[in-house]
Amino acid sequence: MASTKKQWLTELYWMIALLSAIVLVAYFVRDINLFALEESVDIIIHDTYFVMSPVYALVLIGIPILSFIYFIRIWVTSFKNNLCSAIYVVLNIVLVSLLFITYSFSINNSHSSESLLEGWGLFATIILSILIATVVSLVYTAYRISMNILKR
Questions:
Q1: Which residues contact 16 (CB under 8 A, 6 or more apart)?
Q2: More confident position, 139 or 41
Q3: Rounded CA gap, 151 and 144, in Å?
Q4: How many other C-beta atoms can be found within 10 angstroms of the C-beta atom of residue 100?
Q5: Both ends of the chain: CA-CA distance in Å?
Q6: Sign of the dihedral defined by the CA atoms of residues 60, 62, 63, 64, in that order
Q7: CB 64 within 8 A of CB 39
Q8: Are strands 48-52 and 41-45 parallel, antiparallel or unpaired?
Q9: Of 2, 13, 1, nearest to 84 (Cα)?
Q10: What pTM was computed for the model?
Q11: Which of 3, 13, 62, 124 is the residue whose CA sits 20 to 30 A from 82?
Q12: Higher pLDDT pick, 37 / 8
């Protein structure tokens, strides 16, 4: 019982520290102020101009960073921490959803006359590669969690 409580507190401390670091980095590097909700964040990709809320910008920045950090944590601990692995699975599902939406958006904006290495075609190829690697990592992590549970 005490071990489970300690695990939950450890993961809570990790999540608070990582979210705080992401908010601070986003504020100082990209000048994204989470508390100024009436402001907007401007992102330019290729020849498209996106205007979004700071909350959405932090989600787009934070989820991949959190997923990558938890990926490193579960590999370092050899998948022994099931709670950390479960958090990674949830973050990975959200990341796959974001990548799928981004990929479908980039496919709709690509032109058939462009080659694959120009404009949105290259962007779509990179997003698809990351999406496939993320899904493979998600399946493998779920497999390792199930093996840990079956060993008990």
A1: none
A2: 139
A3: 11
A4: 15
A5: 16
A6: positive
A7: no
A8: antiparallel
A9: 13
A10: 0.74
A11: 62
A12: 8
